[in-house]
What does this fold into?
Amino acid sequence: MTSQGVRWTAEQVLSLAPDAPSRKAGSKLGTAGPWSGTGTTEEGVVWGLCKGSGSKPYQALADVSGPAYACSCPSRKFPCKHVLGLLLLWSAGPAAVPAGEPPEWAGQWLEKRRARAGKSAAAAARGPAEKADPEAARKRAERRAERVTAGARELEQRLTDLLRGGLASAERAGYGMWEETAARMVDAQAKGLATRVRELGAIPGSGPGWPVRLLEESALLHLLVQGWAHRESLPAPLAATVARRLGLPETAPPPEGPRDMWLVLSQYDTQEGSLTVRRIWLHGTRTGRTALLLSYGAAGAAPELSLPVGLGLDAELRPHPARPRATLGERFGPVVPVAERPRGVPLAEAAGRYGALLAEDPWLDSWPVTLDGVVPVRGPDGWQLAEPSTGTALPLPRSFTSTSGLWRLLATSGGRPLRVFGECGHRGFQPLATWAPEDREDTEEADGTGRATARSRPPAPLLALR
It folds into this structure.
């Protein structure tokens, strides 16, 4: 037992893995063989020494109340395979990792971590010592706008050349042309344009139908460039969306966010150039809101923020102007199990929500939604999530159907309707998590007199699909 009440499950531990190789390597280290000197405290600190290739074992640490992780190995992945293995061993129960007092090296790490937390809290309490010079800020914004405008004009010319030369030329040119263009957009301080240009470069190698997808994405990029060129005549909310999509910083501070018990629905990493971007989806069990936390790791390093899927975090979130993004504020306790689950909606309502949001942001790729009563089926054009009650369906993207996530979804369903959380967009529905189907909300058991009494069934566990 820990301060959070129960030890994590192996599924929750493996949801922290930054990639599939780390998950596989961590699973191999989840046995007692390579470990010595393991222990844990009631506050949720876990430590151990893992035998490696050298003469000195690696010192692995985890504070599950944070959560936070550390290891003396040279890996830049976070958490590394040694921390994953330690947590898997710890999840097996007190017999595997007994309670005890942390050794000196673990105590030093805890003291440093508490000191950093104290400094961060003090800095947040002080706030900015003085406001920046508004005139200097205005001049910086004007200079950046000029650079972005120059970059947007250059990109518009390259898109024009692409269409004049024919889309087939994009396949012959290879990815180098797009990477060079993206670098030019970074120089112009338009990171949003650079990201979308890199996405264009990957389309020619994405399989059958790529010319149509390339034309669609080129049109959206052209629309974004034109929106920036005519931003003065746009409604203020749309002009702000255009600036945000180009990567310009927000001028207004984020408002104070709600405190809630946030259920961790999903966590996965993507690559944006040299950056590793971690996307963590949260569901507010009291407010019903869905929020996205983004964390970044540079030059091959994994992002630092990592939360176990299926557990809840009592914390404040500060809303970001780009909905549904948010930033993590003050935490009020460790991650704990929660029984609440997001409410599912029909397919038609999910598609309708996304369509309405496109009117506000034409470049919105997807929107978080939980579907209810859907079954994975094989259709004439590939795999789909179908709604038996209405006969409607949403396609599953090729990036999902080519992974083990599809088979986990099929095995969980067994032909029965599911509740599935994911991202609904113009490419279809990307499943991220699901719950095992429940035939009844409660079950019956015999009491001492032989009579049947109802008891609540524990909530179905959340299963990560990515």
Notes: The chain has 13 helices and 18 strands. The longest strand covers residues 259-272. The radius of gyration is 25 Å. Residues 1 and 94 are 8 Å apart (CA to CA).
